[in-house]
Amino acid sequence: MAPLAADSALSRGDREGAIRLATSYTGRNPNDVRGWLALGRARLGPSAQFASGQPLQALWAFRRATGLDLHSREAWAWMGRAGMTLGGADGESAARQAWKQVLALDPASPEAWSEWLKLSRGRSERERVRRALAQFLDVRAARTRIARLLIEDERYDSANVLLDGLLRDDPVDGSVLALRAQSAFEVGDTAAGSRFYARALASADRDPEDILWAQAIGIATPTEIRAWEAGVPAASRAAFLAGFWARRNPDLFRGENARIAEHFARLRYARKRYPLMHALTAYHRNATSRASELRPSPAEEAFYLMCEAQEWPGAPMRAADRARLPFPETGFLPSPAAWRDLRGVRIPGDLGLGPGERILVPPFSRDLRDIDTTAVRAGYNLRTGLDDRGLTYLRLGPPAHRAIGAPNVEDAFCRIPDLERWDYPGIGQVRFFRPSAVSLGPAAGMRQTSDMVIRAQNEAQFGGMVAGLTRDTTSVPAPLPIGVWLAQFRGESDSSQVDLAVLATEGRIAVQLVGGAGEPPPPTFGDVGLAVLTSPPGRYSLLVHARAADSLGRRTLVVPLRSFAGVGMSDLVVAPTWGDTAVGRTAMLERAPRDLAFPPQAELRAFAEVYGLPRSADGTVHYRASYQVYRTDDARRDARRDSLPGGIVLSFERARRARGSTVVEWLDIVPNVPPGLCIVRLTVTRLDGVVVGRAQSVLEIVGR
How far is CA 680 from CA 389, 503, 553, 644, in A? Predict the structure, then answer.
């Protein structure tokens, strides 16, 4: 049979042969759906998107198939795939029609639903799909999907009726619980939203629609996206998502994580005002095309220099902008009239270079690939249905200042609304532009990106782009400055664990370690600027929050907890001396100054624990301890150096009793260095010269 022969040829890689066989068969049997499907599949082979006209011809073949059999789920599905491959407005229109028909025939189809969600969808498109799914209210997936579309239309009461009915039938459906939480959060019912979301996280292993990740991916970091896509087992999804939100908790002193409610409020706003309008342009659907269009085009460069780099001819400019001008020695751009004469601008939005003309603008050389290749490959826009403004709003919240249009309003070329600049305190400016709004004519290449995308044109804006695509922030203010230092020890109650001492400059602190495979433990609180956490070795995010009166401070640190199995030593802790010589970890941590500042000529007590050294028959451990006190003007640099030339050096051979496999090493020192920063370093070696470990602390000697 010719259709089977065509499919067989295609599976062998003989695409042209498959096309010939299928074309011949459809010529003889124009009313056989199988022939048109075989022809469409052959034209839609693996390299179809790179073959001129083939996706369009495949789409035509599948249209013939669906015309012959309106109830062929297979034909509609292939038509949807062809539309997705073709892309553009025509491809999106065909794909939208095809996937709607598949859902009208099979409302539980995961492919049809996931592909339709990638398309730009307005209220009318959502209404059409809801009507298609409404024929199958006895199918659970159909009701879940209808509820999701009702939430997008902000018809929350109608969505809740469906969702509550689904929960009566199955109260631990993670997808339904996640949508019920979203509905509550978006109307401002934080209490109900928190309850439903906690239940959703507990049921994350039963999330057939993958709603929980779809809700969160818009603010995920590239590292989190890679981790999820690598495959999080169903049993570990609750812990992964709990850690995801714990890392974003704006206030550990509160009973609930306010960042979750804030996220859904932002999501509602962004979905309404910044939807993705042209989902199937090459920029969004193809990683290769996306990479090729990431850097601003010559037309965008010309627009920036003419319309943004100065507000009027001769105005002061940044040095980085001046260096990019065609005439940098003048220090300013030509006047708009001179630029028009020079560049041949004919109509607003089109610089239209004629034969032999070329633009002489050096491009800004950094783009999205300099941030993280995940951002290039993943296509955040298709995952969220938002343009880059929506993604930035979701991540960073509303800007402090938003400007639309270019500063240069004198020239008609600049008077287009396709530019926005958002300013965020502490982050900088994020610049959005619609690349298809300007061109240099066909000779210079046309940009087809028709959505607003982040486009950095200088280093400051590049910093804003980095934040807009890799960071997320809360609107909960935290103006209180706090200093934090850490010390790691072998676990006292379990030697396979690590005790992490967290010391902060403010007295009332809340700390939490987030990471590893399990769900993060609840926060630990301390009233004297000290908290001790116990966890297995690994890489963690450490959240440190402090409160003074009504003021909140936040620090987030990446902390690798090292293993103390075998021979090794703890971190070094330094505190003022006291009369008792029964020195222990707790006493040192309680007495250590939180700001690591000491008065001149103060006597210091340095302390560390040494693990795993062999003991003699009487329980004594022999080793050499070498202390060095070094005055520094660059602590970060010198702390990384293997040797510190000069300074005070004190070395001792020790014979000390061990408690189990742990030896306490301590010494009282008078640094005798001038005011400023100094490093106290301890190196422990065996008597045969083998280094056991090295620890150090950076102190400040405060002068008068």
Answer: 49, 18, 29, 11
Sign, CA dihedral 320-326-331-335, equals negative
Phi then psi for 573, rounded to 5 degrees?
-120, 135
**Of 420, 424, 88, residue with least CA distance to 274:** 420
Dihedral (CA of 444, 445, 446, 447) sign? negative
Adjacency order of strands within the sheet including 498-504: 484-490, 498-504, 530-535
Contact criterion met (CB below 8 Å) for 14 and 46: no
Q: Which residues contact 550 (CB under 8 A, 6 or more apart)?
A: none
Question: Which two three-digit tokens encode residue 299?
Answer: 């037309």
- Pairing of the two strands 691-701 and 597-598: parallel
CA dihedral sign, ordered 503, 504, 505, 509? negative
- CB of 422 closer than 8 Å to CB of 399: yes
Q: Token pair for residue 593?
A: 């100054």
Asked whether 208 and 216 are in contact (CB, 8 A), the reply is no
**Residues 6+ positions from 212 with CB-CB distance below 8 Å:** 174, 175, 178, 200, 201, 204, 237, 241
Are the C-beta atoms of 66 and 101 separated by less than 8 Å? yes
Q: Are 465 and 458 in contact (CB under 8 A)?
A: no
CA 501 – CA 530 distance, rounded (Å): 7
How far is the C-alpha of 554 from the C-alpha of 250, rounded, in Å?
A: 8
Distances (CA, A) of 615 to 483, 494, 685, 691: 39, 21, 15, 17
SS3 at position 417: coil
443-473 tens-digit pLDDT: 555 566 889 998 888 888 888 888 887 889 9
Rounded to whole angstroms, the Cα distance separating 71 from 379 reads 33
List pLDDT tens digits, range 111-132: 999 999 999 999 999 999 999 9
Own/partner pairs, 635-642, CB within 8 angstroms, 24+ separation: 635/677, 635/679, 635/698, 638/679, 639/679, 639/696, 639/698
Using only the alpha carbons of the chain, give its radius of gyration: 32
Extended strands (E) in 602-685: 604-611, 620-632, 648-657, 662-669, 676-685
What would the pLDDT profile of 49-102 be if each residue is shown by its tens digit? 444 568 889 999 999 999 999 999 999 999 999 999 888 889 999 999 999 999
Distance between CA atoms of 392 and 267, rounded to whole angstroms? 11
For the chain, list the domains and their CATH numbers. Answer: 285-470 (no CATH), 484-563 (2.60.40), 569-701 (2.60.40.10)
Distance from C-alpha of 265 to C-alpha of 262, rounded to nearest angstrom: 5
